[in-house]
Amino acid sequence: MQKSTSQDAPRNIGVVMLGRKRPGFDQEWNKVVYQQSLAALEELGFTCVGADNPVVDDETLHVTLQKIHSAKCEALVVLQPSIGNGQLALTISQHWADPVVLWATPERPTDGKVSSCSLVGQHLWASVLRQAGHPFEFVYGDSADAAVRADLIRAIALCRTFGRLRHAKVGVIGTHVPGFIDLAADPFLLRRAIGIQLHPLSLPQYIDRVRAVAEDAVEKDIQQVRALGLRPVNVTDDALDINSRCYLAMLDIMQEESLDALALQCWPEIPNMLGQWPYLAISRLSSAGHAVSIEGDVDGSIGSLMSSSLGLGPGFLTDWLEHDTSTIFFWHPGMAPLDMCHAIGSEDGPTLGSHFNIVKPYVVDGQLRPGQPVTVTRLWRCDNEYHMTAFEGRSIPPRRKVTGNSILVEVADRNVPRRFDALLHAGMPHHVSLLFGEYAETFRRLARLLQVRWHD
Fold first, then answer.
1. pTM for this prediction
2. Higher pLDDT residue, 330 or 238?
3. 3.40.30.10, 3.40.275.10, 3.40.50.10260, 3.40.50.10320: CATH of 169-455
4. What is the spatial distance between Cα 330 and Cα 317, in angstroms, rounded to a whole number?
5. SS3 300
């Protein structure tokens, strides 16, 4: 289930309440339902814009939508405690480009007659929007029901994420690393399919920028790194300046270029030219909620942007290293978000080390926490369209230790080799993202909104 907090949700949401020009149904009950629904949204942390007056025709709808647009609302919820005018669904479709949340509320439980037809009305709207090609999310139930509130949070987050992706800008410093051509990005397909703008950046210019970061900013950042308490193992922490420079340069570029996500070509140039791997910097950026990826994996950074916008965190971009019938062992060379690892300072907590292959600092060594629900997900392009998958499992104690970041996930719902075979033949790249929590259904719904091909 999606996180129950709405702290990452937009503060302002638009609310359109359909009224009726003609009398009918139980208007007293409908007034109660509407007030309860607004109260529930406010208790979830939302400020409802446009909810002060009912909408009954094009004129009143235009006035309400103008208020909602002026307040820069990132999501729109439509309520109709009594079945309203289905024609207005097309008016909303013309004037609200992003998906709509249709919330159907219940009938009066103790009445001997039909009190509202709310579900019928929202069913009508859903059918109209679908046939008009306008995406929507559907929620049904009582505002006091915790499951319904969780559905509302998810639906609003999905609609907001759709809108953010349509206006997002993703940077790539350099390109995919040598040979990893399955990570290559197509800027025009990305724009057509999802709406995202791809912004290529120069790797040599980034390296120059790393070297040019001001000394006082570097020293201040080094103190922040040391305050994390990561214990050096077979390395010293007296050369942290390069990683701080990498970290600060990426932050500056994202701000300067208005980037929502960033992919970095991390090897072979960076360790060879700067003497260090940037993975500690990547780990810190991910830990702070930034959507970043390594090896020039643009779609990997977009997947991180998706999960962050949904309020699930950026996740851990990893290789699918090996598997058996029911488990998958995931690994990557030391750039996982710190909050996915054991506690810093604990026996199994993350430490600073050198890369296992080109033996240079700094990577974050440490297994991810066992005993957690896990979602494995990936967005990718193949056959001139975008694809997405997500499935769930649980992290369990690993059978062996390796350097870098690793996690063993038990997948209970399907034969792992069969799933792997199906995803290979769908063209899925060798990277996937891991999140703690059960979010496969959330990603399925996002794929549906984006009209991305879904793979179970």
1. 0.95
2. 330
3. 3.40.275.10
4. 9
5. helix
